[in-house]
Design brief:
Strand content: under 5%
Oligomer: single chain
Order of helices and strands: HHHHHHHHHH
Number of helices: 10
Distance between the termini: 80 Å
Length: 242
């Protein structure tokens, strides 16, 4: 990116960036802790887990390439004028989409390699992570809808995720104010869409958790399992007597 005109705005930009990095990093732990305490993964959609892994893998490739590769940085500079650093299982649809995505990534790598079009390649990975951000949330939101419950799904993860997305968007706004340009928005559409998608879906999960299905939420995470055991329990002979 270009040199900063305002030192305070540069400081705010750095703070927002590290804040987003921090809360997004921490956001993965509440779900793991919740699973451990409940001794159960009921309520966590496995499609979300696989999509999330694919999304973050491609996002890692995109960011690492922009940060560490002088070739990608030069190509980015030439184009935009600056550089910016129970019983759950994975569904067949999830498996198919994931294989397709990585197949697409492999084809892009083959096409980019002969001409050294590395910026084009990492931009494709950026496109993948944006697409996967949208896809990954849908199975979990739909599962919550079917169960009419968010039990087993960590709301702390969502609150931290929302904080990171908001900070990420604010960071781009601060940079635009300093540079008096919207170039960092359309020059890094992936980051912009990532922030917007994160905020939209996190708000949806918050509505599900606190407004739509609040009575179904149980702190110790055992009620849902008790209900499931009752539903699966065979009827007693006395229940058939009139």
């Amino acid at each position: 990116m270009g040199s900063w005109n305002s030192v305070p705005l540069e400081v705010i930009y750095q703070i927002l960036g590290w804040f987003a990095f921090g809360v997004w990093s921490i956001s993965f732990y509440p779900q793991t802790i919740l699973n451990f305490r409940r001794k159960s993964v009921v309520g966590l959609n496995f499609d979300f887990v696989v999509f999330n892994l694919t999304k973050h893998s491609t996002y890692l490739i995109y960011n690492a390439s922009l940060f560490f590769s002088p070739v990608v940085q030069r190509q980015y500079h030439e184009k935009y004028g600056y550089n910016e650093r129970g019983t759950q299982k994975v569904s067949r649809v999830c498996t198919g989409i994931t294989i397709t995505v990585w197949g697409y990534a492999a084809v892009c790598l083959i096409l980019a390699w002969p001409n050294g079009s590395w910026l084009w390649l990492v931009t494709r990975f950026n496109f993948i992570q944006v697409m996967m951000t949208t896809i990954k949330y849908i199975p979990q939101a739909y599962m919550n809808f079917l169960r009419k419950s968010t039990e087993g799904w960590s709301i702390v993860n969502i609150l931290l995720d929302l904080s990171g997305g908001t900070a990420n968007f604010a960071q781009m706004g601060v940079q635009s104010i300093d540079q008096d340009s919207l170039e960092n928005f359309y020059g890094n559409v992936g980051k912009l869409l990532l922030s917007l998608e994160t905020v939209i879906f996190d708000v949806l999960f918050i509505l599900q958790h606190y407004l739509l299905y609040p009575k179904a939420k149980v702190e110790d995470g055992t009620a849902g399992e008790n209900v499931e055991r009752l539903l699966n329990k065979p009827p007693k002979e006395s229940d058939h007597k009139v």
